[in-house]
Structure formats: C-alpha cells, structure tokens
Amino acid sequence: MSALRSATAVLPSVRLNSRACNILGQAARQISSSLLIQKDDSKNIGNTTIFVQDGTNIQELPSIVQIINGEFLMTSNGKTQAGKRIEGLGLEIPQVSKSLFKNINFEEEQEMILGFMRCQRVQEVFKLLETCPEEEVTPAVALNVIRRIFELENQKGHRTQSVNQYPDEAPVTFTRIALMKRLVEIVCASPDPQVVVDALRSMSRDSYHGDKNSYVKKLCTEAIILVTEGRLRVDQVCEVAKAFYNLGEIGSQNVEKVWVGITDKAEDMKPSDLCNVMNILPLVTQSRSALYNVVERRMGIIWYKLKAEDVIRILHILVQLKITSVRMLSTLSRWTNLNIHMLTEGNLRWIVYSFMYLNYIDHTMQKALTRFMKAKKSNIKDPSLVSVIMDYSVKTRFRSPEILEIAAQYFVRKADVLTVPQISSMFKPFGLLYYEPKNAHDLFLTLEELLEDKFVQFPSNTMIDMLLSCVYLKRYPVNFVKKVFNPYFFDKIHSLESGEIRLTRTKLKVFDRAMTLECPSYNGPMLPRDRSAKSFWRDARVIRGVNLIQSILIEIAGNAERITPSAILPNFPGTEMYVVDCVLDMTGKFSLHLQQKKYALLLHLPEHYTVDGEHLVGPQMMRTRHLQLAGFKVVSLSLDKLNKLRMYPDALKGYINEEMLKVSH
User: Fold this and answer.
1) Which of 85, 322, 446, 482 is at 20 to 30 A from 35, Cα to Cα?
2) What is the C-alpha separation between 427 and 466, in angstroms, rounded?
3) Are residues 77 and 163 in the same domain?
4) How confident is the model at residue 42 (pLDDT cuts 50, 70, 90)?
5) Domain check: are 250 and 285 in the same one?
6) Contact at 8 Å (CB) between 395 and 359?
C-alpha cells in the first residue's frame, strides 16, 4: 500500500447496476498504478488500469490518475474521500474553481468575437490578440479565435503543400504556437465544460504541420480529466470520444478511458444517450464490452421510449460490429412489434434488413411481420420492402403462410415494376421454404413471362437458383432449358468469381439431374457424368449422430455389414446433398445395385427444417424425392430428437423403428 500512496487518483465510482460492485475498494486497492504510471508532462496525470466487476465478469480497463501533493485522493460522486470522512460533521472540502471570468458582459463578449470574425488573415488575428486586454479574452472568445484561425488557415488561398505553412515568417510561426497555447489555457479555465468539448472538436480542423502537440495534449488532458471527474453529460463524453479519435495518434490513447464518464451516469441515460454511446463503440476495443453492457441494461428499462431513428442507429452499429446479443435483439424485436404500424416503409426495411444480417428471429418478430403484411397486403408502395421481408424469411427459415400468400399476390400485381433482384427475392422463398400458394397458377405464369422478357438480365447463378426453386415445388421450367444449356449461358457462368463458378456449376448439375429424374418431357441428362474422384465435407454433427444410433441399427439389421455410413450414390452429382447419411441394407452389404429393401437414413440438422421445426425446406424435400426415385425407402430422422433421446435407449430405438415403419409400406 505504501507504494500506492505516491500519487493522487481522480476516479469516479463505477455503478454498473444495483447488484454490481463499484470499483474494487475505495482507494488504492482498485488501482494497479503500482505496476505502471506513465506521467504526462503537460499536467500531473498518469495512465493506469483498474479492475471493474460487472456481475460475474471482471474486466481490466484503462483509466487515469491525477498526481496531487504526493498522495492518493479519490473522488466519488463529486466528493473526495477526505470530504466523506468529515461529512458527518456537515463539512466538505471545497473544490477550487477554475473560473477567472466572473463578471463577463455578454454584449462585449459578442462584440469581441465579431471583431475577430472580421479578420481576413491569420496575422490580423494575431495582431488583434496582442492589443486586447487579457481579461477580455474569455473562454468563449478564445474558442472562437481558435476556430477563426483554423478557418483562415484552411482557406484555399492560404494552404500550401510545404511542411511549414509560414515559410517566410518564422516569427509568425513562433507567435502562433505561443498564442495557441495561451488560448487553450484560457479555454481550459472555462467553468463551462462545453467550451472545452467544442475546442477539442475544433482541433481536428487544425491543418498546421508544425509543433502543435503541446497545446493539443493540454486540451486532451483537460478533457479526459473532465470526463473522469464526471463533469460532462453522456452526450458530451461521446463527443469527446469522437474528437479524441479524430485527432489520430495524439488523442487515440484517451479514447479507451471515456468509459468512466458513462458508466457512472448509466441510471440517468436517455434514449438519445443510448444512441450516442452505441456510436462510439466502433472507436474503442478494450472498453467496448463495458459500454455495451451499460447500454443493454439501460435499454431493457427505457426501450419503449426509443424512436425509429434511434433503433435504426443502434441496429446499424450492431451490424457494423457484428454483435448478436440475444438480450439486445429481443428488446429491439419487442419495440418493432409495438410500433410496427407507425413505422415508415423505409424504416421497416432497414430494421428487417438488420435483423436478417444478424440472423436473428423470435416469435415476437414473426408476429410483427405477419401483422404488418396482413394489414398492408398489396398496398405496400415500396417493392424493396417486400423483397427484404422475403429475404429475411429465407435467411431465418421463417415459413409464414400468411406472408407467403400476400407476397404471391403482390408479385402477380406488381410484376411490371419489379426489378431483377426483386423478382429473385420474392420468388425464391416459395421453393426454398417449400410452400405453394393458392394462386400458384398465376404466380408461375407471371414468373414465366418475366423470365422470358428479362432472361439476359439475370446473373447466371441467380437464374439457376430461380429454376431450382421451381423444381423444388415440382414445377419444371422446360421452356428455359435451351437457354440454360447453351454456350452463351456457360460463358456467363465462367464470368463469375472463382468460388461462385464452382458452386453455380454444381447447382446446374443438380438441376440437370432433377429434371432427368422428375420431368418426363426433359430430354436429358444434358451434362456428361462427372467421373472425377471427389471428397465431400461432412458435418460433424451428422457423423456423431450416425455413431449414436449405430448399435441400434446393427440390432435392427442383424449385423454391421448391412450398414453403410456416408454412402455416395452413382449417377448423382458430386455434391454433399446426395451423400446418404446411412444406408441400411436388409438384404446384405450395400452395393451399387439398388433394391427395394434398402433404407436411406437421413439425419436432418436444425437448418434442414423451417424455424418452427415442422417442415423440411425445399432442397431437402427434393433430396428425399430423388432418393425415393432411386429405389430407396427414405427415413427422415431429426438430429435434435436423436440427441434428446440419447439417454433413453428404448425410446431412441422406438423412434427409429416408428420412422422406418412409416416408409415400409
């Protein structure tokens, strides 16, 4: 403890919530400055780190200590430790005010500012400063003088590519540095913290290439002390953080320390404060988690007060930082459901897009979108909103009959104004989610007309996805076969990026095989058989699932030779989709000659189902059909259900037997 009494720390207590601890201890126990104190020559402060406990989480965060009279003097909620000790006597150690301008005449101050604004050259500003009485240069005047100097220096006629902006006026250069230091000292003496904040923000406009570190560091030090002492509002702290970041290397070392001025005011934060704090999250790394937790907790209390603009700003930061916190997103989902009918179409589009990017969906969001679509139906003016909702449905596997029915009607009615991306976004969900709407005839007729008219406008990979969506629903686009299997279309495929080329070619092989198996009028296959040796990526969850039920399958089949895991089928495209998870041959060892007593066991992952877990998605339904056409009895097993029954062998065996009996007849 003796080593820790060599300095004075100015640190506010961090009240994270009613259950969270304040900064560990009340004095030197919280500070690791005994390990490292880096002194700042411009003012007696040093850098340190402290441990902050937030529930069960403990973080080491950067902070500062102020060195005063050789001993630690903690401040908490505006009161010193010494003041707390004598508080019972009704006394408190008074803090020295830095205000040197008690009798300021507002009109005279404004006249002074206007005088400096009339100056057209930097030298005129310097000369006017030399003639002004020092007591008349108030902090507000000093701030405006600094701004005017930067404005004049940034004018096109004044700028120069030289390192020194005053190459022939060395005395003027010296005068500038001295005057800037003095102006910054006057600003730092202001009783109004906003003056310091505004001055710090103005420093990012300083284009001077000479020695400016001295006065910039002075201003940064004053700002971080104001933050640490809790003298700034949350919005002011956020402005200071942005100003630090914009100053580059000079101010970046202080950005991580602004958390102190925010966490202590967490209970008083308004909706606008939440947005301001979220906006500075990309600027910090070490303290990002602490600041985010503050916003998350506070939002859980005042979420209903948020405006649409606030929610969009918050979601924008979540997307930018790829933060997928369920607690935060569920709160925003509740807000969306509450305000769904007051949102503009543009606002709702951005909200849905953000949820889609973050891959988040819950029952509340499903309910909100269903309500909106049922209320608006075909009256939605912006087709891109419907496109985003349908893209969101595909991404989250949200199969809502109400939304899909309304989207099908919208697609038919608005077909003339839809762009190529909108056509793709609105149609593909029907096949991918395996849902055929009531107006299916009109839907596919409209699609055929659009594809016929805009075929060349579609990217090759998008076109194949569209045609596969038709096949998923047992609708076969025979009229477009010749347009797909021709050299021009193949050239379009090979104009894609390398990774996309391989994927598109695989999808084309799947389309060719699907049409050959299912469409009698298809004169295929159009592509040669792929005889190259291939290795397939296998999901480890499926492999573990096969191992889990292998003993039960041996018991059912009679011996291990009748079981073939990860069976690769002949005459099928070389893709993981056509790898059978496990083949159970009741007649003997698995062979290439398929017979009716062979079972194809498919272990379906959660992503093979819609979000409610009740329906298989379109590609898996087509996979099942193709295996049936190849002679297999297809047994679909839910991997989640297998894992739930793993501790109950009898129930697990009964589940497998039950599913096999369903396809035995």
Assistant:
1) 85
2) 7
3) no
4) very low
5) no
6) yes
Q: Is residue 497 part of a domain?
A: no
**Average pLDDT over the chain, rounded to whole?**
83
The DSSP 8-state label assigned to residue 555 in this structure reads: H
- 135/347 Cα distance (integer angstroms): 52
- Cα separation, 257 vs 95, whole angstroms: 23
The answer to whether the CB of 634 falls within 8 A of the CB of 600 is: yes
Whether the Cβ atoms of residue 260 and residue 227 lie closer than 8 Å to each other: yes
Give the span between the Cα atoms of 32 and 64, in whole angstroms.
11
**Residue type present at position 228:** T
* C-alpha triplet 231, 224, 184: angle, nearest 5°: 95
Sheet holding 38-40, edge to edge: 38-40, 45-54, 57-66
How many of the other CB atoms lie within 10 Å of CB of 326?
Answer: 10
What is the C-alpha to C-alpha distance for residues 310 and 312, in angstroms, rounded to an integer? 5
340 and 308: one domain? yes
* Euclidean distance between CA atoms 416 and 254, whole angstroms: 56
Q: What is the mean pLDDT of residues 95-121?
A: 70
Q: How many CA atoms lie within 13 A of 422 on its CB side?
A: 17
pLDDT digits (tens, 9 = 90+) for 369-383: 999 999 998 889 999
631: left (phi over 0), alpha (psi -120 to 50) or beta: left
235 shares its domain with 291 = no
* pLDDT for position 562: 87
Strands 633-638 vs 598-604: parallel, antiparallel or unpaired: parallel
Asked if residue 280 and residue 197 are part of one domain, the reply reads no
Number of domains in the chain: 4
Give the pair of three-digit tokens for residue 23. 């900064």
Digit-coded pLDDT (tens) for 114-131: 888 888 888 888 888 888
562 or 160: which leads in pLDDT: 562
Question: One-letter amino acid identity for 652?
Answer: L
The answer to whether residues 378 and 406 touch, using CB atoms and an 8 Å cutoff, is: yes
Query: Which of 220, 221, 233 lies closest to 193 in space, CA to CA?
Result: 233
CA angle 655-661-665, nearest 5°? 165
Q: What digits encode the pLDDT tens for the residues 405-422? A: 999 999 999 999 999 999
C-beta of residue 578 within 8 angstroms of C-beta of residue 572: yes
- Residue 585: the pLDDT is 85
Residues 124 and 68 in one domain: no
Query: CA-to-CA distance for 34 and 208, rounded, in angstroms?
Result: 38
| In-domain check, residue 510 | no
Radius of gyration in angstroms for the set of CA atoms belonging to the chain, rounded to a whole number: 35
In terms of pLDDT, which residue wins out, 169 or 508?
A: 508
- pLDDT of residue 85 exceeding 70, the answer is no
Does residue 232 lie within any of the structural domains?
yes
Domain coverage including residue 150: 114-254
Given a contact cutoff of 8 angstroms between Cβ atoms, the answer to whether 411 and 376 are in contact is no
Query: In whole angstroms, what is the distance from residue 264 CA to residue 257 CA?
Result: 13
Cβ atoms 444, 417 nearer than 8 A? no
**Which range (289-298, 577-586, 594-603) has the least confidence?**
594-603
